[in-house]
Amino acid sequence: MVEGQVYPVSDEWKKRAKVDAEGYEQLHGRSIADPGSFWLEQARRLDWIKRPEIAGDWSFDEDDFHIQWFADGKLNVSANCIDRHLKTRGDATAIIWEPDDPNEQAKSFTYRDLHREVCRFANVLKREGVTKGDRVTIYMPMIPEAAFALLACARIGAIHSVVFAGFSPEAIAGRITDCDSAFLITADEGRRAGRTVPLKANVDKAAAQARALKKVIVVRATGGDVAMTEGRDIWYDEAVRDVADDCPAEPMGAEDPLFILYTSGSTGKPKGVLHTSGGYLLWASFTHELAFDYRPGEIFWCAADIGWITGHSYIVYGPLANGATTLMYEGVPNWPDASRIWQVVDKHRVNTLYTAPTALRALMAEGDEPVKATSRASLRLLGTVGEPINPEAWRWYHHVVGEDRCPIIDTWWQTETGGHMIAPLPGAHALKPGCATKPMPGIDPQIVDADGNVLTGEAQGNLVIARSWPGQMRTVWNDQERFFQTYFATYPGKYFTSDGCRRDANGDYWITGRVDDVINVSGHRMGTAEIESALVLHESVAEAAVVGRPHDVKGQAIYAYVTLNSGVESSEELRDTLIKWVRSEIGPFAAPEAIQFAPALPKTRSGKIMRRILRKIAEGDTSSLGDTSTLADPAVVDHLIDNRIS
Ligand code: PRX
């Protein structure tokens, strides 16, 4: 990593930014010294039905473990994202929607339009029997109705659980069952890069396994032919014809659940991360305004999918809470050609673009021409999220895309954190390629060693957060014990992020990547244990071990070692079968890039798979395998090295 390269805050940004270096120090200082009054003051950015008088009430200690924010407050999240803007900016654009196919018409919705659409959607949900506290699974393409559906749930107090449209029927069924969701919203088909995705057909397969499911609401997106099950499935366009244009917003306690979002961990099945209403919305709104220096009238484009936390917080909740214009894009950055993302920037005069390093690396590989063919004059700020950005991609983003005039906000955060945790503020912090720089106000990061000793000054170790913040997840759905054990047991009294981190001499934080068995493939977070479980479900597989190895574009690629049942012969055909198997068990993005058949895996005498060795072999770094003396059978390693897939 090239170090020492620093991009100071430009004079222009010093002048125009809401928060400068001194302002940041003050904000952060106050947030830590007097969090109670700091957060009650910040709470004023929301519209409360009952204003809270208590800010944080939490303890990370096992015998008194609890996390609450603004617990005596009452509000409605959808009213905060829509109704309160009607008076002042009812005719301002809330959502711009850009379709997959550039020859189709874009759409835009004012806040007044959004109010009507969300109310009507909410009325359909109510009529179908959805009530406060019910779980509603949302399996949608990137169409405006996806945003309407989230906000409609929030309006009536239903808890949404969005399942990314790339997940397989198996994965949908598991998530429906885990949160006992009787309702599901989907579309006939999705579209991406000119292809269709059979969403309704996937839901039908999932429904066969998910007995909790009672009603399926289907939005007509492509007009494709789909099967409808009488009594269970209804067309949204038919249901919405005769509902009222208004729907009162349900008063909700600040700690009432807003949504569940499943995410992968190092063990077991995906966890249902639960976020609640007041603290989450406050955090989404606060971080959106600060990190992106957002001002009314600007066009904000978060090029993520609504199926992930980035889409929840920075396509829907944060921007709309702030009265922003948020752009929603149905397609992918490089279709029909490598200029598309920049064409969309020009077409809608986007001011802030927020995307993932993996997308930038893919675009960078196409050269500078597709970028230079566009103007990008509207851009003033760039952002990245989801994985560490390599300095080369950072510099390309800065120099070629932003023509050296747009700061890059490298935001480190997680599904669990609700919003940005460590990120530069454009008017306050000098930028360093690959560095997330400084904690947001309210965030108290620490670096600890393996024994939990807090390291000071320049240091490298594991990243923990020493105090709660409003956007923190509140529990794992239905499994408070797992919540505590996963995040608070490793370093007592602290939230463990599972990320490694380094702090440099200026006190800037550099995220070095996960320290657990979670891998990040094209910005998709996956537990290696999940892929292993899928592989061993296949009748030919006795055992599997999955590791990540570096990949130029995807960040990491999936490398699987598979031991077959006795009597089963390895073959290319079986390799293909297993790759297809994983696609259907989890989703296309979880398909291994390489499967190496292995007669045995390297294990310790107590039977533990030595993943460190498997990672090194997959990376092709076999000269430094480290200590193999604890292996039960060292000969296994030679066989693995000889048969490595490059
Ligand atoms: O390893 C970190 C990486 O993504 C993980 C969180 O993944 P997920 O919950 O899917 O949320 C992604 C969107 C927030 C983290 O534990 N990560 C995220 N942002 C960065 C990052 N790693 C380095 N730099 C980042 N800016």
From TrEMBL:
Residue ranges constituting the AMP-binding enzyme C-terminal domain according to the UniProt record: 530-608
Cofactor(s) annotated in UniProt: Mg(2+)
Binding annotation for CoA: 192-195, 310, 334, 522, 583
Modified residues (N6-acetyllysine): 608
Domain AMP-dependent synthetase/ligase: 83-468
Post-translational changes noted in the entry: Acetylated. Deacetylation by the SIR2-homolog deacetylase activates the enzyme.
Keywords: Acetylation, ATP-binding, Ligase, Magnesium, Metal-binding, Nucleotide-binding
Residues the record lists as binding Mg(2+): 536, 538, 541
Function: Catalyzes the conversion of acetate into acetyl-CoA (AcCoA), an essential intermediate at the junction of anabolic and catabolic pathways. AcsA undergoes a two-step reaction. In the first half reaction, AcsA combines acetate with ATP to form acetyl-adenylate (AcAMP) intermediate. In the second half reaction, it can then transfer the acetyl group from AcAMP to the sulfhydryl group of CoA, forming the product AcCoA.
Homology family: Belongs to the ATP-dependent AMP-binding enzyme family.
Name recorded for this polypeptide: Acetyl-coenzyme A synthetase
